[in-house]
Amino acid sequence: MTTLVLSPPLIDTKAPAQSPESRLAALEGYINDAVRHCGARDRGGFDTDDLVQVATLEVWKELKDYPDAPIGYIWQVAYRAAIQEITKGKS
C-alpha cells in the first residue's frame, strides 16, 4: 500500500524553533512579495525598498513573539504593514 503525500508541512513541529533573525532571513522573499503585491496601489511617493524595510521590521516584531508563525500569516503582516505605511503617508 502506497501513501500519497500531497505537500510537506510548512513548519516541522518536531524541530526546535528558529531564532527570529534566522527565520526573518528565510522569509525575505515572502516579505518582498507582499510589498510588491501592493504595487497596484498608489504608493504615495514611497520607494519599494522603504516599504520593504517597514514590512521587515513589523515581521521581525511578530516573530519575536511568535517564532513559529505560519508563512501565510507572516505574508499578511508584511502586506498590512506596507499598506498602513502608504495610507499613513497620504494623510
Can you put this structure into words, describing what you see?
The chain is mainly α. Helices cover 60% and strands 0% of the residues. It contains four helices and no strands. Helix 2 (28-37) packs across helix 3. The longest helix is centred in the C-terminal third of the chain and has 20 residues, at 71-90. The protein is elongated. It starts with 19 loop residues before the first helix and ends with a helix. Residues 3-9 have low confidence and may be disordered.
> How would you state the average pLDDT, rounded?
77
Helix count, DSSP H or I runs of 4 or more residues: 4
Low-confidence stretches: 3-9
What distance separates the N and C termini? 62 Å
* Subunit organisation of the chains: single chain
Tell me the overall shape. Answer: elongated
- Total number of beta strands: 0
Strand content: under 5%
Helix content range = 55-70%
User: How is the biggest beta sheet arranged?
Assistant: none
Topology order in helix (H) and strand (E) letters = HHHH
Gyration radius, rounded: 16 Å
Question: SS-based structural class?
Answer: mainly alpha
Question: Can you give me a brief rundown of this structure?
Answer:
This protein has 91 residues and is mainly α. The protein is built from 4 helices and no strands.
